[in-house]
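## retry 2 of 3
previous attempt timed out at serialization; input unchanged, resubmitting
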Amino acid sequence: MNSTTKKVATFSAVGLIALATWEGFESKPYKDIGGVWTDGFGNTNQVVPNKVLTVPQALDRLNKNVNEFEATVNRCITQPMTQGQYDAFVKFSFNVGSNAFCKSTLVKKFNSGDSAGACNELSKWVFVKGRRVQGLVNRREAERTMCLS
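## retry succeeded, writing output
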C-alpha cells in the first residue's frame, strides 16, 4: 500500500514478520539487555520466570501486544501515514514502549509534517543504559528504511 491514509487498518504481514524476526523466539523467560523479563516474541507483559511458553502461546501474546501498539500509534500519530511508516512505528513502539513513543521527538516531527525527519529520528534510539548496542543500530536502520519506503 503506497497511498497515504489517516489510520492504517492493520499491521501488515511484512511488518509482523519483521517484528517477529527481530524479536526472535524464546520459550523460556530471560532478562533482556535492559534487565526486563521477556519471553516469547519480545513479550514483557506478565512474564512468569521459569514458565515455558509454546509457540502458539507466544504467537497469541505477540498478537495481543501488536494490537496494543497499533492502538498506541493510532492514538499518538495525528497525520496520515503510509503502510511503511505505520509498520515502522508499530515495530518501534513495541520495542521502546507506548510512553516513550508518544513523547518522542519522532512523533512530534511526524505530527508537524516532517515525515522524513521523523523516520530519521529512529537512528537515535540505539542505546541501553547509556551504551550503544549494535543490534539496535541494525534494527533501527531497518525500521528507518521501512519508514522512508
